[in-house]
UniProtKB/TrEMBL annotation:
<dbReference type="InterPro" id="IPR045186">
    <property type="entry name" value="Indole-3-glycerol_P_synth"/>
</dbReference>
<protein>
    <recommendedName>
        <fullName>Indole-3-glycerol phosphate synthase</fullName>
        <ecNumber>4.1.1.48</ecNumber>
    </recommendedName>
</protein>
<comment type="similarity">
    <text>Belongs to the TrpC family.</text>
</comment>
<dbReference type="GO" id="GO:0004425">
    <property type="term" value="F:indole-3-glycerol-phosphate synthase activity"/>
</dbReference>
<keyword id="KW-0822">Tryptophan biosynthesis</keyword>
<dbReference type="InterPro" id="IPR013785">
    <property type="entry name" value="Aldolase_TIM"/>
</dbReference>
<feature type="domain" description="Indole-3-glycerol phosphate synthase">
    <location>
        <begin position="4"/>
        <end position="252"/>
    </location>
</feature>
<comment type="pathway">
    <text>Amino-acid biosynthesis; L-tryptophan biosynthesis; L-tryptophan from chorismate: step 4/5.</text>
</comment>
<keyword id="KW-0057">Aromatic amino acid biosynthesis</keyword>
<dbReference type="InterPro" id="IPR013798">
    <property type="entry name" value="Indole-3-glycerol_P_synth_dom"/>
</dbReference>
<keyword id="KW-0210">Decarboxylase</keyword>
<dbReference type="Pfam" id="PF00218">
    <property type="entry name" value="IGPS"/>
</dbReference>
<dbReference type="InterPro" id="IPR011060">
    <property type="entry name" value="RibuloseP-bd_barrel"/>
</dbReference>
<keyword id="KW-0456">Lyase</keyword>
<keyword id="KW-0028">Amino-acid biosynthesis</keyword>
Length: 261
C-alpha cells in the first residue's frame, strides 16, 4: 500500500467517527455558515505574483517543518505579505494540522482560505464551510470522476471555490468539468514524493484556458516562478519554503517583493 492509500484509508475511518460525533445539522448552525466567501480564483486572476502560502507543520515526506509557530502569527504575516490566499493543512495524523487551525486562521485574517485536506466525503465540505474555508481541494488521484463531479457541485452550492489537483495526464482527462475553478498541478508525486517542476510544464498545454492554473509544491525560489509563468500559471502554492523559516510572513514578504520588482 502506498502512502496515499494509507492516508485515504485512515481518512475514511476518521470521517466516519467525526460524523457520529458532530451531526451535519450542527455544522450548518456555525455562524461561519452565513459568511460571504472570498474567491481565490478571482484574486489569482488579478494578481501579479499569485502566491498561495501554506501553513504546514510537518509532512510525511519531510517530517517536522516547523513545530513552534502559531497559526495566528503565520496568517497575519501572510496577509501582510500580500499573498492571494492561504492554505491550511487540516489533516492531523500526517501533517499535524486541525480544523482548529483553520478556525484560528479565519479569525486572524481576511484572506481566502483553502482547506488543505484529503476530501473523500461531502461531510468534509460542510466542515470546511463551518470552520471558515473559502476554497476546497479535490485530489484526482483519490477520487472517481463521479465523486469529483458530486463534490465540486456540492462545494459550488456552498459558494466555495474548487481547486482540483492532478499529477498526470490521466487524472487531468478524467477531471475536466465546469464545476471546477482552478486546476492545480502537483509537482510532488503523492505516492513516491518525487518532485519535479517538469510536471507543471508538461501538463500546462492540456489544461483548458477557462481554469486558473496553479502549480503546487517544490517551489523554493523566484526563478521557479519565472520559469512557470510562460506556461500560463497564475497561482503558485508554496509551503515548506516559507514554513521552514522562523518568520513565514517575513519570508513571503521578501519573496513577493523580489517577484514584483
Ligand atoms: O511544501 P511545498 O513543497 O511548497 O508544497 C506545498 C503544497 O503544494 C503541498 O503541501 C501539497 C500539495 N498538494 C497536497 C495534498 C495534500 C497535502 C499536501 C499537499
Amino acid at each position: 500500500m502506498n502512502i496515499l492509500d494509507k492516508i485515504t484509508l485512515d481518512k475514511r475511518n476518521e470521517v466516519a467517527l467525526r460524523k457520529q460525533l458532530i451531526p451535519t445539522s450542527q455544522l450548518e448552525q456555525s455562524v461561519l455558515f452565513e459568511r460571504q466567501t472570498v474567491s481565490l480564483a478571482k484574486n489569482l486572476r488579478n494578481s501579479k505574483s499569485g502566491i498561495i502560502a501554506e501553513h504546514k507543520r510537518r509532512s510525511p515526506s519531510k517530517s517536522v517543518i516547523n513545530n513552534t509557530l502559531n497559526v495566528q502569527d503565520v496568517a497575519k504575516g501572510y496577509e501582510n505579505a500580500g499573498v492571494c490566499g492561504m492554505s491550511v493543512l487540516t489533516d492531523g495524523k500526517y501533517f499535524g494540522g486541525s480544523l482548529d487551525d483553520l478556525l484560528t486562521a479565519r479569525a486572524s485574517c481576511s484572506l481566502p482560505l483553502l482547506r488543505k485536506e484529503f476530501i473523500i466525503d461531502e461531510y468534509q465540505l460542510l466542515e470546511a464551510k463551518a470552520y471558515g474555508a473559502d476554497v476546497i481541494l479535490l485530489i484526482a488521484a483519490i477520487l472517481t470522476r463521479d465523486e469529483i463531479k458530486q463534490f465540486s457541485e456540492f462545494a459550488k452550492s456552498l459558494h466555495l471555490d474548487v481547486l482540483l489537483e492532478v499529477h498526470n495526464e490521466e487524472e487531468l482527462h478524467k477531471s475536466i468539468m465546469p464545476s471546477l475553478d482552478m486546476l492545480g498541478v502537483n509537482n510532488r508525486n503523492l505516492k513516491t514524493f518525487d518532485v519535479s517542476l517538469e510536471t507543471s510544464k508538461t501538463l500546462s498545454t492540456l489544461i483548458p484556458n477557462d481554469f486558473v492554473k496553479v502549480s503546487e509544491s517544490g517551489i523554493s525560489n523566484i526563478e521557479a516562478i519565472k520559469e512557470l509563468q510562460p506556461y500560463g500559471y497564475q497561482g503558485f502554492l508554496i509551503g515548506e519554503n516559507f514554513m521552514k523559516t522562523d518568520n513565514p510572513g517575513a519570508s513571503a514578504t521578501e519573496f513577493i517583493n523580489k517577484l514584483e520588482e
